[in-house]
Amino acid sequence: MRIALLQTRAAGLDTLETAAEEAAARGARLLVTPELSLTGYALGDRVAERAEPADGPGAAEVSRIAKKNGLALVYGYPECGERGAVHNAVQLIGPEGEALANYRKTHLYGAYEAEHYTPGHQLPVQAELDGLRVGLLICYDVEFPEAVRAHALAGTDLLLVPTALMRPYDAVAHTLVPARALESQLYVAYANRTGREGEFDFAGLSGLAAPDGTVPVRAGREETLLVTDADLALLRASRERNPYLADRRPELYPA
Asked: Which domain holds residue 13?
């Protein structure tokens, strides 16, 4: 599957539409955009004001963009939840404009997120796309090996991780994300913001980590659209060479 990863300072529907058009022109079947790509990350006290349901007006416009360009699209947004809760969420829209999966961030990062969002409680969230089982996490979630391993045990082939990784935590992109892909034998598509937004300084360094521990494509600090392939044959071969899941002994580490 050909995948596009958007690394940008901007947010909003115009940014998503421009990226979708370029991704489709370059043959991508899936576009992954950063955390809170519909609204921007540094919303402050406007988080609740900008929140909408999973089938709200933003979703309708993203559905239009996906269908128009014939590709699946992952975008981040503040979601209205139950009893007034607001969740940091991502939604996967299919190439026909259909909603395939919605995920609420389960591991909130820092005081800012804890103040404005309610954590989700569902892992793993998955969907089928072009013969691959894709899963969803958000940013800080991928830094917990248990979250990624839950996906691996449920059969996720390609883990999509919209991200707002901040500086100076470059080691997450350089070291931790490739390690997650190798130890759990799946692809990790990591799409980050870049540049400053309010008080936050985002690291860039988006990339696709492969199950053999390599990173076939990685951005620097600049705004860019990366396009690369997740190879199912490589995934199968890597799983045969690295049988970590089959060789686990969970009776030794049950909790």
From this structure: 2-246
